[in-house]
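Why should sequence recovery work at all? Because a backbone constrains its sequence more than one might expect. Tight turns favour small or flexible residues, buried strands favour hydrophobic ones, and helices have their own preferences. The token representation captures these environments compactly. In the example below, the structure is given first.
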């Protein structure tokens, strides 16, 4: 009977999984095949080993529960690669350090914008010519801006370019814990050989090396060994090297030997592209205007965008309705703020120039007198509060100021708020003018 055929059972399992685990559902689930179903065990074939790892790490339990619900028996499930990786390959593997490559985190799935263009380009260059350009490569930025995605993408691309490349990818915590364990077990030489003999060493969140003197000493020598042998080093942190707390100066100076690239929060346009890309990976169809609505609502980082998509998808399936702008507003708690959405930097600059009786050209000039600097900083502050623009884009409207200048201006105005009531009232008046416009 059809109901007992492995292909039919898998089809029903996938439908159940899509309902119960929207976070981990991917479009490539449709490429899964039922290899066999006998003795209470279902073998499922996957396109490659990376996807097997993903399913084992994220979906084994939900697939097993779905299989038991569909069949009515205590069924077990296992995943198998249809194209297994050669046992001779020493490229990045789970047995090496406990991490797995995420199948979504490739260069093709990374949305490039002004906020991350340099970091993206440098990672591509490193994956093509490890150890010869941008060594070390140091990426920094806040949580959820794509650093880990780029690290995985480097591994994916490096494996495609050179299947024999030896890559070691681990978090700073794993490096420290591995070092401590090696000392306790008297296997320090093995630990050093593991890290100093690879072609590419990738360490995520290197800031956690702070206040660990012995681990810093070990990493210092590991860094030197790899660098002197022209092996690639890639590091990430939440701040630039110069701002890393409690790290030895000799380490900080080495982190700056190569290229230091920053990842900023994505602009409105980039967020729209990210929403559409993430929805596409999950097979979620978004009607006209919904991606823009989510991009307007979620402004901080990419992980929150993924969370918003999960909530929206789960809500739509729960209520049995298609995704619409109205359902999106209800699911995400979005309020109608049409007037605020239309505010532009031109509106802000014009309003500030009137309020302070100065020329627009002076606000956009290089002049640094206090009578111009303060209104210019207020423009930057209001731009961050009332528009969709990134810090870089706001600076571009005010004479090409960079990201750090805009960030400093916003911090300065927030401090003035606490001490200067007159300025605070003027800014609040400007905000009312702009938001009540129309």
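From this structural description, the recovered sequence reads:
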């Amino acid at each position: 009977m059809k109901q007992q055929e492995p292909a039919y059972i898998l089809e029903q399992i996938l439908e159940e999984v899509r309902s119960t685990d929207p976070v981990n559902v991917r479009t490539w689930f449709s490429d899964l095949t039922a290899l066999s179903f006998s003795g209470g065990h279902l073998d499922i074939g996957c396109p490659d080993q990376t996807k097997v790892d993903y399913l084992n790490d994220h979906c084994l339990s939900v697939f097993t529960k779905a299989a038991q619900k569909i069949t009515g028996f205590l069924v077990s499930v296992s995943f198998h690669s249809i194209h297994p990786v050669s046992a001779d390959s020493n490229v990045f593997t789970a047995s090496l350090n406990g991490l797995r490559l995420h199948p979504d985190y490739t260069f093709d799935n990374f949305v490039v914008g002004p906020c991350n263009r340099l970091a993206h380009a440098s990672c591509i260059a490193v994956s093509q010519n490890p150890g010869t350009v941008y060594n070390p490569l140091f990426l920094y930025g806040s949580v959820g801006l794509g650093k880990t995605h780029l690290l995985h993408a480097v591994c994916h691309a490096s494996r495609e370019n050179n299947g024999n490349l030896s890559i070691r990818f681990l978090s700073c915590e794993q490096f420290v814990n591995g070092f401590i364990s090696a000392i306790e077990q008297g296997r320090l030489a093995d630990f050093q050989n593991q890290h100093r003999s690879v072609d590419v060493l990738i360490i995520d969140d290197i800031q956690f090396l702070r206040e660990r003197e012995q681990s810093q000493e070990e990493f210092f020598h590991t860094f030197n060994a790899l660098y002197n042998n022209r092996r690639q080093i890639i590091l990430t942190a939440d701040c630039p090297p110069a701002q890393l707390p409690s790290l030895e100066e000799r380490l900080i100076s080495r982190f700056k030997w190569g290229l230091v690239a920053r990842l900023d929060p994505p602009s409105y346009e980039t967020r729209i592209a990210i929403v559409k890309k993430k929805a596409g990976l999950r097979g979620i169809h978004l009607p006209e205007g919904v991606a823009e609505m989510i991009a307007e609502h979620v402004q901080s980082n990419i992980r929150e965008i993924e969370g918003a998509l999960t909530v929206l998808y789960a809500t739509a399936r729960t209520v049995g309705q298609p995704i619409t702008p109205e359902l999106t507003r209800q699911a995400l708690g979005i309020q109608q703020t049409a007037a605020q959405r239309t505010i532009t930097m031109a509106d802000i600059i014009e309003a500030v120039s009137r309020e302070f009786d100065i020329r627009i050209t002076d606000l956009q000039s290089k002049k640094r007198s206090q009578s111009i600097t303060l209104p210019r900083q207020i423009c930057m502050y209001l731009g961050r509060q009332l528009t969709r623009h990134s810090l870089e884009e706001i600076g571009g409207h005010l004479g090409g100021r960079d990201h750090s200048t805009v960030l400093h201006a916003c911090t300065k105005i927030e401090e003035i708020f606490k001490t200067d009531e007159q300025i605070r009232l003027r800014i609040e008046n400007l905000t009312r003018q702009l938001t009540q416009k129309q």
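A few observations help interpret the result. The CA atoms of residues 290 and 325 lie 6 Å apart.
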